[in-house]
Amino acid sequence: MSPAQGNDQGVSAVTDGLNQDPPRISFLVPAYNEENYLLRLIDSVDVARARYLGGKDSIEVIVADNASTDRTAQIARERGCRVQPVAKRVIAAARNGAASAARGEILCFCDADMRIHPETFNAIDACMAAGKTVAGATGVRLERMSLGLAVTFASVIPFVWILGIDTGVVFCRREDFLAVGGYDEGRSYAEDVNFLMKLKRLGRTRGQRFSRLTTAKALSSTRKWDKHGEWHQLRMMITLAIQYPFRRHAVDKFAKSYWYDDPR
Asked: For the whole model, what pTM was predicted?
């Protein structure tokens, strides 16, 4: 199927729709030069929307185009997504920009290089409808595995357990997103951890928890490992952990080069 054909079949049903009832779920994607990965994500979203018990038209998809210089915005529009331009080149700003355009009761944030599970929206809706969850995440699987990736992945798990949070498709209610002030745009990294910890604190005041939906894990790309090597991220985490207390400027400089200036 070509992108043009996708206008009539996939995410296109969510285009505009401003005269319709607000959607139940807003699926929000920060994207900078993601033409090589965005189509894969949208294809997986189409499948999950088709299986959503609340009806596919109850889900809108918004791509926050974070000053891309490639076909990211064009691809998103051709596939029927709403595009929200965001000029500030910080991923927190892109996430906030997408959220500012969202109309759904539930906000779902997903990186452009992921693919989501077919039951993602059903699992999230059921979780939030129970009323016991302030926020949650689906968790992830890696699209391929090796010794280096397995060791790196395993080294992160203790932090997931200690902090009680996770990654993947992250979700919360729009009113709670606003209550905690969204993502901190002063952070060039770890903005996702900071955001979820704020939501967890809010949830504790109401007896709500953070939920991990392990039955609907997203599939995460391994492009950083493909480009920089199987063991690079493990070495990076050790180095940054040592430098962070004493050389914060060096960590900030590295974060900019690794997450923002690395060509795609």
From this structure: 0.88
